[in-house]
Amino acid sequence: MAADVMDVNEPSIMNLKLKPRTQEVILETKAEHINEDFSHEDLVGAIYTEGDLRGSDFSGSDLRAAIFSRAVMPGVNLEGADMSNSFLDYVVLRGSNMRGVIAREANFVRSDLGDCDVTDADFTEAVIDRYQAIGLCDSASGTNPFTGVDTRDSLGCERLKRYEGFNKENSKVAVSKGSGTWGGAAN
Q: What is the dotted CATH code of the domain comprising 26-160?
């Protein structure tokens, strides 16, 4: 059985009301778009590398397979956006509104997701650094209205635990002659 593959030529399952796309290829590097309105845009496959997008509005936009690499995006509004299969590596999204987004199979490697509102979001099979996912779980709630997926389930909140250290009872790590092979085999 073949795996489901996203077809960006098909409309988003979110029935987004989009403005007409004005250019076929969107490729911007180190662009400055502070507090700009990108709401309800067709940005499928768009590429924004090292851009400054602070406070911009991407609500209701189609961001499937879009790339935001090393972008500065704190406080952006992504509410109701389809971010499926998007790639956001080393992106600062701190304090952003991600209510109701679909971020299935999105990649958030090394991104800052602190203080984001993820109510009703779907992160099924998204790649999120463990400590960022744990932080999102602190306030995650709701169910995505389009996929029917519980936000906490999509983040894996029930299986994520904070690191508590190995030395809970103030005991010492015992090292004996045969406990390791540093410098050669133990006798």
A: 2.160.20.80
